[in-house]
Amino acid sequence: xxxxxxxxxxxxxxxxxLAGIFLPxxxxxxxxxxxxxxxxxxxxxxxxxxxxxxxxxGLGVLGVTAELWVSSLGGKVxxxxxxxxxxxxxxxxxxxVFFSVPGAVIGAxxxxxxxxxxxxxxxxxxxxxxxxxxxIGWLFSIAVQLFIGMVMIAIFLWRVL
Length: 161
What we know:
It is a single chain. The chain is an all-alpha fold and 161 residues long. It has helices at 5-20, 29-42, 50-64, 66-77, 82-119, 124-160. The chain starts with a helix and ends with a helix.
């Protein structure tokens, strides 16, 4: 039995990507996808073919964008308006530029809170409810990314082993 060292290397990179879901300096799901694509290219697309790459790419897009759509869904379920979610996105991007990932989360939550307080004419209880929904959605997005990352790794192992 020979060891496919490229598969081992790809799996190690994927596990680093899985850790990256929790560590802000590592790209997470994108790294898992890149490792799978890199392995497919090196292997000549024999074990990971075009259909598998399409599935992994679809999962990768869902995983990479999960923070955006899951947190927005959480805010929407809690009563936030689209304008509030947009304000959260803008302040989150500003926070990201100046203060990295913690700044993005704090900026987005404050953006939703401020816009909801303004929209609801000072009803801070409802504004806090909407902002909390966004924050809970953001936390849930980490679980979604973790699940998607694990599914991507399972598909990779299924095709390679």
